[in-house]
User: What shape does this take?
Amino acid sequence: MIDYDKVLSKTAVEMKPSGIRKFFDIAQTIEGVISLGVGEPDFKTPWKIRQAAIDSLEKGKTVYTANAGLIELRKEISKYFERTINIKYAPEEEIVVTVGGSEAIDISIRTIVEPGDEVLIVEPCFVCYSPIVSLSGGVPVVIETKAENEFRLMPEELKAKITDKTKLLILPYPNNPTGAIMERENLEAIAEVLRDTNIMVISDEIYSELTYSGEHCSIAEIDGMKERTIVINGFSKSFAMTGWRLGFMAGPKDVIKHCLKLHQYAIMSSPTTSQYAAVVALQSCEKDIEKMRNEYNMRRRYIVDAFNKLGLDCFAPQGAFYVFPCIKSTGMTSDDFCEKLIFSKKVAVVPGTAFGKSGEGFVRVSYAYSINHLQEAVKRIAEFLEEIK
Amino acid sequence: MNSLIKLLKTNARLTNAELAVMLGKTEQEVAEDIKKLECDGVIKGYSAIIDESAIDTNSVYAFIELKVTPQSQSGFDEIANEISQYEQVESVKLMSGAYDISVAVTGGNIRDVSQFVSQKLAAIDAVQSTATHFVLKSYKDNGIIINGDETDERGMISP
Assistant: This one.
């Protein structure tokens, strides 16, 4: 018999499964659940994008692309960055098309982090940063953001965690799970702390198109930051293309060329069909994005108002498609609240703790659902709160 | 205004308070906007979207194409208005293309509709010909999918 304990990598074995997993397993066993737990759009990919994929298949475009991605696509991505965050990235050497934003996160962390390096992770946040840092032997150093600051990263919180070993800051805004954003002045303050250091920034901006107050701002736009920032974005959230697995990253060519080696050895090139579809997405789908954003915005206003009326304090998030109401008034932990809610009212929301310890006392509610669906869920949550009084 | 219209088209029963929250306006502003849309004739009324076949499986819905001789003074208006008076007529539209007027009709059964066409519509002097198309099945009406089995394929929970 083979002894797996001797075969498997200790790092992999010790890697914790995502905090969402346990709750997912519970939800699976219950019939008729109304879910507010999903982190992907409820819209279908706009038809012309799907059509472009079909056309490319009909023409037999089924071979590998360049490692970094189709040059037409990289050119469109370059234009996209220029029109959205006003930064020029060279399509030939500063952009890589990746398998979702996830791969971009993975290869950029692995290109930078060495054993012992400290990586600053702003929590609550998406679940993958810490495990990937650990995989590289890096040390995740958590910065907990606070509800009273609307979950923005404050410069003094950042400063307090920087040591000689700090190599990287991962900046996840607009934020999953809180819906928080960083406005230009917030980013200026962060840039001020980083400008004279040797610390790199990975700015995960996958929700950038879902910003509801003013324009999204990237930290790479701030003076002196482009040279120390890798910007990550993708098609999943903004174009409702989660299943296409396509993202992209941009940064200084001396960093990107090494990221590209990791991409090349692990992936070769991102899915060809998806890439052809993505060209059309960037060329002609601005109106579709706007339509979806308007729809999310209406739902956002509805759900924030509904939770506040229920007595669960909820700041009005300005980004992504999540609200992060505080459930401390019920006296329960996040885990308890979510378990009781799903068992008694069959409504699934995600415990804030799935996104870091600082999520305790909060739950994540996705509003990537129709208004009718949200109304039914709110009704059930109201009944639940009444019953536990 | 467009967002308001869109919301009302999907669900006319949303209260002004609910609409106000979703649109980021006050209740009074929403009430005024709706009033204006009504006064300007943009909103003509509020009705439920009914799947007739769910009430009475024999009921039928038909589109009838009419070729009409235009009248010297009124063109097609007089005939169209006359047809609009019938209770069983759901909609009357002047069309471009191969025929002139499109009439949507409901009836308790096929015979009802056939009789209406032959005895009422075809009997109008200016009507040169009729072509009746019975609806076999409705999938989407007024922007609402009424016979779809669209399920949410997303998992229950994802990061």
Observations:
- Residues 47-285 of chain A form a domain with the Aspartate Aminotransferase; domain 2 fold (CATH 3.40.640.10).
- The interface with chain B takes residues 18, 20, 23-24, 27-28, 33, 35, 37-40, 42, 126-128, 176, 294, 298-299, 301-302, 305, 348, 350, 354, 371-372 of chain A (CB under 8 Å).
